[in-house]
Amino acid sequence: MRWRRARQQNTEINPEDIFIDSANDATFDRARFEGRIERPLSHTTFLALAGVFVVVFGLLLVRAGYVQVVQGDAFARQSAQNSLESTALFAPRGIITDRHGAVLVENIDANKGTGTGRRYLMPQMGQIIGYVSYPKKDSSGHYYDTEITGVAGLEAEYNEVLTGTNGRVLVEKDAVGDVRSSGMIVPPRDGSPLTLTVDASLERHFAEAIARTADTAGFIAGAGVIMDVHTGDVHAIVSYPSYDPNVMSNGSPVATIASYNTSQGHPFLDHAVQGVYVPGSIVKPIVAAGALTDGVITPQTQINDPGRLAVPDPYHPGKTYYYNGWRALGIVDVSKAIAWSSDVFFYTVGGGFGDQRGLGIDRLDHWYSAFGLGHTTGIDLPGEASGVIPSPAWKAATFKEPWYLGDTYFTSIGQYGTLVTPIQMVRAAAAIANGGTLVQPRMLVAGTPTRTAIDVSSAALTVVRQGMRQSVTGALARALDVPYIEVAAKTGTAQTGVHNEYDNSWVIGFFPYQQPKYAFAVVLERGPSGAGEQSVNVMRALLDSLKRDDSTYVGGSGAPTTTAGASAR
């Protein structure tokens, strides 16, 4: 029973019960069972392994002690310099396109480490579109300016719209400043796009016509605007010479930027919006509209133009003041006076002479102001100039002198202290074309056009438009008498320089004549005396190129006719 109980209690088999102990079996073939049986660790092997363990452990202890005691401070400093930084991930700005979706400004992958940059595809629009300033770093490489900022033009005007929202990226740097790892924690959000009213094709043709004419004829600068007479949409706006916004945004080449600063054409000035010029005779349609509306003249009123106006001095008998015209034109009515730009007619209508009463300076100022002169137009471009409309108060403040009748005469023909901008004059031309409504020029296709009615007679404007059409069909703007589109225009020449040795050349107008859609204004600055017709030639070159390459504005296609020469006043 005890054996039975013992057997029952021993229910497990130990390895030694079944494995052969080779040390106690002299007949055991060790080679045969090598790798398949256990063998006791020899005393020598055990001591060798123990020795290796002691040596390795000792070396580790020594190294740990050296690092902790001897190099502890150095590693502590390096550890303190390892850092995680949250830095800006710069958002791409909104792209800018023309009215048809053609890209004018796009983003590129990288610029100076900002992750995004700008590429300007129409550098001739430098002052209009503007340029940007990229984020800046301090000497340690940290950004202290984290925005891509619009500096000029539309980039500045709509900076808040174009600017996106920067993202954030977490960057791990080691003690020497090298990036160990990075990960985006907040993605950037792109800025909103802008769709301009500008037509890139028309803009390109217009810019080429102005640049080519100015360079050929010897003008230092020029500007032009083409605008929808009903909406105020600016389809083309040119300022020449321009700067390359790619150069300005990148800050190089430095030599090119230096040449901009010394150019007599002032490429940083937006000549279409910020440039102010003596208008000369292009204000005569406004004076005519005012005089007809006020009843100073009728469409049938005739005035003799002998080439000059001789005005006796009421305070000094026998003394006469002469106000010269550009040529003797004989008997003229208001339409012919506009077409042939009669100075004597408008001297008389503005200031009065003999039995013919004039508007007087107060009503002249009223009508200039009513057509938008002397005021900003509200166009969405920065730095718009308001110009100057002379008045007795202005003269007293500026020169400390009283106002004379001769000042009224000269103001009547756009001389003396009168200063206007091209954007003002295209707006005035549009008001004449559309029947007496001032539209606010705009650069974006958005919202409802802003319109202001002028209290002017529609019959008066009809007469004025007839005079402007006659200027094209048989007078000073004959270069614009083309078979494929009916144009109405008024030319103007203003002498500048210390000795009146230079000419500014102007033309304003609209087309088509019967159902006007577009108004235009062109000025060429400081050309040689006698070059007053060149602004008309700009418009002729533009119309011919549009006829040939782009039927949107003049209709059809075909070879342009030869540009005819014409005088202009």
UniProtKB/TrEMBL annotation:
Membrane topology type: Single-pass membrane protein
Domain Penicillin-binding protein transpeptidase stretches: 222-543
Protein's UniProt keywords contain Iron: no
Residue intervals passing through the bilayer: 46-66
Keyword Metal-binding in record: no
Annotated keywords: Cell membrane, Cell shape, Cell wall biogenesis/degradation, Membrane, Peptidoglycan synthesis, Transmembrane, Transmembrane helix
Cellular location(s): Cell membrane; Membrane
A GO CC term attached to the entry: plasma membrane
BP GO annotations: cell wall organization
GO molecular function list: penicillin binding
One Pfam family of this chain: PBP_dimer
Source taxon at top rank: Bacteria
Domain Penicillin-binding protein dimerisation: 116-180
UniProt name for this protein: Penicillin-binding protein 2
Organism this protein belongs to: Candidatus Kaiserbacteria bacterium CG10_big_fil_rev_8_21_14_0_10_56_12
